[in-house]
From TrEMBL:
Region Disordered, residue ranges: 295-317
Residues of the HNH nuclease domain: 393-444
Superkingdom of origin organism: Bacteria
Protein's name in the database: HNH nuclease domain-containing protein
Lineage of source species: Bacteria, Bacillati, Actinomycetota, Actinomycetes, Micrococcales
């Protein structure tokens, strides 16, 4: 059955499926490369055919639900009652969403595509049914067909299915479908684009692994061109300053810095302590991170906003920063010891690694809120309306000393700057003599553009540019005593 790719290409998907499920993993592992390639094609053809049948089943469910809701509405009108405003598709989406473990909104979108494919693009459905058109190529055609009115779909299908359509790559088939839609209904395509622009959005989802998050943006093309130009241009500077830095990573750094330079970002970490735990018990930190506030007593009324401390005397030895443990990190934050264990789940975004949470706690601008949770259910039962800044004194001292951003030539006021560790955390402590005020733009220059900085005990910063030139910046001179600094 799997002697060659040509043989598989000509076979019926049902026959292929019957043989596929008789193979064991050991048998597949022993196949020569030619037969293994044929098997890969066979599984794809079967999967394509199966998904086409799923699309037909989705259309059937939605149609039956429409009929059911129409009958209910008719019966309600007959007796003078109120008809239900729930649509048949919404009913179908809710039912199927539970079966396929997706959200009703996602399921409704899938049903929309299935109905358009089965009812309006039967020839495309036939190719998928026979295993000759993979789901990703089907989706490309269905998506582009949305710009075409029903009365012109026959012309759209004819243009898309010109000679060689099944041999085109997904990208090439999408381009053909888009050109076909433009030719069939240019004015409709413009109207669809106008409506789409009104629905521009940025979506967020967990990344490919813990500690990573993915952002997806749908923007009008002119806007996307400007955004991409800004990101790519700054990334090119970063790449030149750091040879070997992958361009993708440089673009990610550039996007982060551009957003940070134009937004005020406030970080609030919620410390959730189970009610009734003993001194030194385990609570949750941040967005569900496990932590231990050394010496914290859940029976207290909460930390003092004046003292800026969230815990009593420490019960661990001072580790001088952040030490890796078997299941987390022990972090010294301005004299308060935090144990951060496991991963911290962040709704919609993914999860933070223990070191990520420790890095958040090393920021003197971080704000902490205290909450109490039920020791059995884990539900929050009480939340302190006040928030606390454990590092507020350090932050005030650094900004007062600096006055402005400490990058050479920058006059951004310190109150609008971020606080940066001169020696990066966790190697450097969170103390006044290891912190400086940097605006978001120049914070990015330090971390991504190859600039280096050193600070002496008087707060004088010596910057080294990527080309080796040095620049000195001084704390704010409030009495015109700059010569005194130099003499010192």
């Amino acid at each position: 059955m799997f002697e060659s790719v040509d043989h598989v290409q000509a076979a019926d998907p049902a026959a292929l499926a019957a043989v596929l499920f008789t193979l064991t993993d050991d048998e597949i592992a022993e196949l020569p490369v030619e037969q293994a390639e044929a098997l890969v094609l066979a599984t794809q053809r079967v999967a394509s055919a199966v998904l086409a049948r799923q699309h037909s089943a989705m259309e059937t469910v939605a149609r039956r639900c429409d009929e059911r809701m129409e009958r209910l509405a008719h019966d309600a009108r007959a007796i003078g009652g109120r008809s239900c405003h729930l649509s048949g598709q919404a009913l179908a989406a809710g039912s199927l969403a539970a079966l396929l473990h997706v959200s009703p909104r996602t399921m409704s979108t899938r049903i929309d595509r299935a109905r358009r494919l089965v009812c309006a693009l039967p020839r495309i459905q036939e190719l998928a049914w026979s295993g000759d058109l993979e789901p990703y190529r089907v989706d490309a055609v269905v998506t582009e067909s949305s710009a075409v009115p029903v009365t012109r779909l026959h012309e759209f299908k004819s243009r898309v299915l010109e000679a060689g359509a099944t041999e085109l790559t997904c990208a090439a088939l999408r381009r053909r479908a888009r050109r076909s839609a433009d030719r069939c209904a240019p004015h409709d395509a413009e109207e669809l684009a106008r409506l789409a622009r009104s629905r521009s959005e940025v979506r967020v989802r967990p990344g490919e692994c813990a500690g990573m998050t993915r952002l997806v943006a749908d923007l009008p093309t002119p806007v996307a061109m400007r955004v991409w130009s800004a990101v790519d241009g700054l990334a090119a500077e970063y790449s030149r300053a750091q040879p070997g830095l992958p361009m993708g990573a440089a673009r990610a750094d550039a996007l982060s810095d551009l957003v940070g330079a134009n937004a005020s970002i406030r970080t609030i970490v919620e410390l959730v302590v189970p009610v009734g735990v003993e001194r030194g018990g385990t609570g949750t930190l941040g967005v569900s991170a496990q932590c231990l506030a050394a010496g914290a007593d859940p029976g207290d009324d909460g930390p003092s906003a004046e003292s800026g401390s969230t815990a009593g005397p420490g019960v661990y030895e001072d580790l001088g920063g952040c030490e890796e443990l078997d299941d987390g990190v022990l972090h010294d934050h301005a004299g308060t010891l935090w144990f951060v264990s496991s991963h911290t789940e962040v709704p919609l975004l993914g999860s933070l690694l223990p070191a990520d949470v420790a890095a958040l706690l090393s920021d003197p601008d971080v704000t902490i809120r205290l909450s109490r949770s039920d020791s059995v259910t884990g539900a929050v039962r009480w939340q302190d309306p006040q928030t606390y800044r454990p590092g507020a004194r350090v932050a005030r001292a650094v900004r007062s000393r600096d006055g402005t951003c400490r990058f050479p030539g920058c006059a951004t006021t310190a109150r609008r700057c971020q606080l940066d560790h001169v020696v990066r955390h966790p190697d450097g402590p969170t103390i006044v003599t290891n912190l400086q005020s940097l605006c978001a733009t120049h914070h990015g220059f330090k971390h991504h553009a190859g600039w280096r900085v050193e600070m002496d005990p008087l707060g004088v910063c010596t910057w080294t540019a990527p080309d080796g030139r040095t620049h000195t910046t001084w704390p704010m001179d409030r009495h015109a005593f700059r010569h005194a600094f130099r003499a010192a």
